[in-house]
Amino acid sequence: MVKPKRIFLPIDGYDPNSWPLAIHCAEQINAAHAPPVSDVVLLLHQQSILAHSSLSGFMGDQIVKALRAGKPVRLPSGAALRMETKRTISHLARATTIIAFYADDAILEMVDGLTNVAGVVAVEDLKGSADQWVARWSPIIPGQAASAPVQLIKDSVVLKALESLSGLVNKSNAVLTSSYEDWAKDVLRILRAKGHFADPKDIKSWAIKDGWKPGAADDLAKLAKKTFEMKTKPKLAGIANANERYDRWCGKTP
User: Fold this and answer.
1) In whole angstroms, how large is the CA radius of gyration of the chain?
2) How far apart are CA 195 and CA 232, in angstroms?
3) Helix or strand holding residue 164 (H, E)
């Protein structure tokens, strides 16, 4: 499976250069894909944005009218551009490049849950509104040198524990089902009992990056928050092989 190419534009969607630059980046993704991408989605929070925002002025009346009517617009490469919103986007039938305009972490999280995404061009809404997505993926930023991936989970024991859990779950599930939830609870309780913590937001982001669907990753983060906020350490007597599992995460046993 080809990993999506992710590009982040460090200018907000109110800059006149934002739209032409977004199209240019999308077309680069289209051309680099094999075979070339022929579908491009302009993803907005809601349709009304296209009629009442600076974006409409950048695009021009003809393009805005076509997109609002549900008609595709041909790009210079021949790819078809169409508009989707958070409410309408659900399934991509084939490889698609997504331009997330006025993007924030919430809408980009939705994109992370889609299949057949060839690439993403993110134009943030306001400065800092997509920080979690940027930290998760270390996307390409035009004009800047490539940055090293951000270490989302800094505690190596927590990381090993999460990796062990991730190897057991069905990552295609949109939610954390009961059996996997029980496994997650055990892992998190062992960590809490041994004095380890991690920011639930970072755990969620790590899980999404590791291939979990956003909904299941969010369930895991909620469990982590609940567990790490426990006032007293949980007892491990009811958790099978708790100490042995912890020793493996610490690298004490193979």
Assistant:
1) 21
2) 11
3) helix 156-166
**Alpha carbon distance 157, 153 (integer Å):** 9
Helices in 75-126 by DSSP H: which ranges? Answer: 105-112
- Nearest C-alpha neighbor of 119 from the set 50, 24, 195: 24
Long-range contacts of 21-25 (CB under 8 A, 24+ apart): 21/142, 22/99, 22/101, 22/121, 22/123, 23/75, 23/99, 25/121, 25/142
Q: What is the DSSP letter of 79?
A: P
- Which strand (E) or helix (H) includes residue 64? helix 61-68
**Using an 8 Å Cβ cutoff, are 18 and 12 in contact?**
yes
Burial class of 244 by CB neighbour count within 10 A (0 to 12, 13 to 18, 19+): exposed
Classify 24 as helix, strand or coil.
Answer: helix
Per-residue CA distances from 172 to 114, 137, 153, 208, 254 (Å): 11, 20, 22, 11, 29
pLDDT in tens, the chain (254 residues): 568 999 999 887 788 899 999 999 999 999 999 999 999 999 999 998 888 888 988 998 999 999 999 999 999 999 999 999 999 998 899 999 999 999 999 999 999 999 999 999 999 988 899 999 999 999 999 989 888 899 999 999 999 999 999 999 999 999 999 889 999 999 999 999 999 999 999 999 999 999 999 999 999 999 999 999 999 999 999 899 999 999 999 998 76
- pTM (whole model) above 0.85: yes
Which parts of the chain are beta strand (E)?
Answer: 5-9, 39-44, 73-74, 80-85, 96-103, 117-124
Buried b (16+ CB within 10 A) or exposed e, 173-182: eeebeeebbe
